[in-house]
Amino acid sequence: MTERVVFTPEAAALAAALKHQHGPLIFHLSGGCCEGSAPMCFRQSDFRVGASDVLLGGVEGCPFYVGAAQFDYWSGCQIIVDVTREGGDSFSLEAADGVRFVSRSRLFTDVEFETLRRAGPPPAQRPAAGAAATATQAPPSI
Predict the structure, then answer these.
(1) Where residue 137 falls among pLDDT bands split at 50, 70, 90?
(2) Measured distance CA(104)–CA(38) in Å, rounded
(3) What is the mean pLDDT of the chain?
C-alpha cells in the first residue's frame, strides 16, 4: 500500500530520539500562519487533535495528522518528512536542538492515486460524544 506520509532515515532517527527523551509524540501539519507547511512535533499530552484532523500515518508509533483543509491540498501527494538545520524559532520539540522537521512532497503516480482512491479517505479524528478529541485518547493503529 502506498503511504501518504513517509519519514527519511534522518527524520525517523530524530523522531525516535525525541520519543525516547519526551515520551509519546504526535506530529501535525496544519499549514498555519506561523509554521506554514512545517510538520510540528509535540508531546501527545500537549496537543489536542481537532475533530476534523486527518490521520495520514505515523513514525515510531507516533501518529501524523494533517488539518482537514490541508488534506484537500495534500491528497494527491506523498508527504516526505525530512530534517534541516536551517530555520527559525518554532514550538516544535526538535527546534531546541537546532534542527527542524520539514515537509517535501511528490505527486502520486496514477496507479498510486487510484489505489488510494479505491481504499477510501484516511480516517478523521472522531472525538467522544460531546467532547473535544485529545491526544491522550488512543489514536488509531499505525
Answers:
(1) very low
(2) 9
(3) 84
Q: 65-106 pLDDT, tens per residue?
A: 998 888 888 899 999 999 998 766 678 899 888 899 999 999
Task: Please name the residue that has the C-alpha cell 525516535.
Answer: 16
* Strand-pair category, 100-107 with 77-84: antiparallel
Rounded CA separation 129/27 (Å):
24
Enter the DSSP assignment of 131.
Answer: S
Give the count of beta carbons closer than 10 Å to the beta carbon of residue 17.
Answer: 13
Q: In what order do the strands lie in the sheet with 100-107?
A: 5-7, 77-84, 100-107
> Which one, of 27, 37, 17, 30, lies nearest residue 96 by Cα?
17
Would you say 100 and 82 are in contact if contact means Cβ atoms under 8 Å apart? Answer: no
Give the residues across from 58 on adjacent strands. 63
Find which of 5-9, 28-32, 33-37, 51-55 is predicted with most confidence, using mean pLDDT.
5-9
For 115, the enclosing helix (H) or strand (E) is: helix 110-119
- Measure the CA–CA gap between 94 and 16, rounded to whole angstroms: 11
